[in-house]
Amino acid sequence: MASAMLKRLHSGTPQQPAGTYSPDILPLTQSLLRALADIDFEYQKDRETILKSAIEEPFKQRAIATLAKRHQERRAPYLREIDKLERRIQRTFA
What we know:
Layout: H1 2-7, H2 25-52, H3 57-92
């Protein structure tokens, strides 16, 4: 999703002088951050559900570890896209 949006970023067009960045950057950044916030919210909600459950502690800890691993895996592509976006912005103003 975000990768396709990043490919549309550009700078230095006739309507947009070099040294400025694409107007798509702000909405793209907001979209990526919103997706991360949704993932984090869901993780916290699921974690609290596990912690409040009546299952035995070893099972809770295993479930939380699995949940945390899944959380990091879900976040990773969005973090990579944000990193790419930051590098693109830095190159624009270098």
